[in-house]
Specification:
Elements lengths: L11 E8 L2 E8 L13 H19 L5 H18 L6 H9 L11 H20 L7 H11 L31 H15 L9 H15 L6 H16 L10 H6 L1 H14 L2 H37 L6 H8 L4 E2 L1 H8 L3 H13 L4 E2 L8 E2 L1 H8 L5
Antiparallel strand pairs: 1-2, 3-5, 4-5
Helix pairs in contact: 1-11, 2-4, 3-4, 4-5, 4-8, 6-7, 7-8, 10-11, 11-12, 11-15, 13-14
Length: 385
């Protein structure tokens, strides 16, 4: 690690370590909270970000079916967070995998990527349930990491277990997190900070971004730190800002501005640049919240239009249409079991929705699969700049 990049304003100590390459240094972050305070000129942006999040929560909380918004948000988050770490799966691939989960045939099988992204969504869902009963703690983080890493790359890292080896970030060891001998002290201090009775010196939204930096600086697992850190971030924001659900997901913004995301975190360590980091995150908060609000309004309108289109036919049409807003992909083989009808009846229902332009078959797939192009476009289209 290039220690010359660390100034007197760094937010931790550089401790000597021995690596296979020879002597080096690791970064041992100071415990939270930092000595930094939110400058006056940044408070209007804090207020704007909190207002955007509150508006999003207000819309989400009043939805008759919260999955209308929550499901596509979680799916987008799973895909983009994994993509930041170099794991690629499309929405179509993920949805088809979840309709028909399969075991990979080799380490190079594309199913590995689909399973990895699917695990991210499962970890998010599990975290929502756990944090209804428990505060943030090491046990919750380890449990979520076990779900995230189940059966995918990095299994050698022992899912759900703190690392006991030295790791480095970047092929050139750009950043070296704490040595394993110091790791437990870092984790204990982090756990104390994120528990519900921790210091409330900061706005809860800002506090979540301070904690996200700290978790990534500690890097407590051998693998999966970026992904599990972003799972925890969404859950922290929801819990600390008292949202009805974790509506705010930052990975799309972090992926779009990946270089700034990585650089700004490094500058906190090297230069104590908390203001730049928090400003960046608040900008992303406003962007992500407003994007979700706009998508939700479009989905609500589309759902009403679809129900009106399908109303005069089978009484099952409403159930099928409602289900599409949780997952816009459907197979007859799954649908006939879900509805408790025969295969031909389920196929007839799908055929009718296809004639109404609600469903469209995906080409070259056996067994045949259908999807809703209108829902897909609203829920998963790329964000505007």
């Amino acid at each position: 690690m290039d220690t010359s990049k660390f100034t007197e304003s760094k937010t931790g100590d550089l401790v000597p370590i021995v690596t296979p390459k020879g002597p080096d240094h690791a970064f041992l972050p100071y415990n939270l909270p930092p000595g930094w305070r939110i400058p006056g000129h940044l408070w209007p942006k804090v207020a704007e970000a909190r207002a955007a999040v509150a508006k999003l929560d207000g819309i989400g909380a009043t939805l008759p079916d919260q999955e209308l918004l929550l499901s596509p948000l979680k799916t987008r988050e799973a895909i983009t967070s994994s993509r930041i770490e170099g794991t690629y799966a499309t929405v179509q691939e993920l949805m088809l995998f979840e309709l028909d989960p399969q075991e990979p045939k080799s380490s190079h099988d594309q199913i590995n990527s689909r399973r990895e992204v699917s695990n991210y969504a499962k970890a998010l869902t599990a975290g929502i349930g756990q944090l209804e009963k428990l505060p943030f703690c090491g046990m919750v983080i380890r449990d979520l990491h076990s779900i995230l890493m189940d059966g995918v790359r990095g299994q050698h890292s022992i899912p759900g277990t703190w690392r006991n080896v030295q790791i480095a970030i970047g092929s050139n060891w750009r950043f070296v997190p704490p040595p394993p001998t110091e790791l437990q002290n870092c984790i204990d201090a982090f756990e104390s900070y994120v528990k519900e009775d921790a210091s409330n010196d900061y706005d809860p939204l800002v506090r979540a971004y301070l904690a996200h930096y700290q978790f990534e600086a500690i890097h407590p697992f051998v693998d999966g730190n970026g992904r599990i850190g972003r799972v925890i971030l969404s859950l922290m924001i929801a819990k600390w800002c008292k949202l009805s659900q974790p509506w705010l997901y930052m990975s799309s913004f972090f992926e779009k501005y990946k270089e700034e995301y990585v650089t700004n975190m490094f500058k906190v360590s090297a230069e104590g640049a908390w203001e730049t980091w928090v400003d960046f995150c608040l900008t992303g908060t406003i962007h992500q919240a407003n994007d979700a609000i706009q998508r939700c309004a479009k989905l609500i309108k589309l759902k009403a239009e679809m129900l009106a289109r399908g109303h005069s036919g089978s009484i099952r049409a409403e159930r099928i249409i409602n289900g599409l807003f949780s997952s816009p992909f459907v197979r007859v083989s799954n649908l006939h079991k879900k509805l408790g009808v025969s295969y031909p009846t389920a196929q007839s229902d799908i055929d009718r929705l296809e004639k109404l332009n609600i469903l469209k078959p995906l080409p070259n797939l056996r067994p045949k699969c259908y999807y809703s192009p209108e829902i897909y476009e609203i829920a998963f289209a790329e964000q505007n700049a």
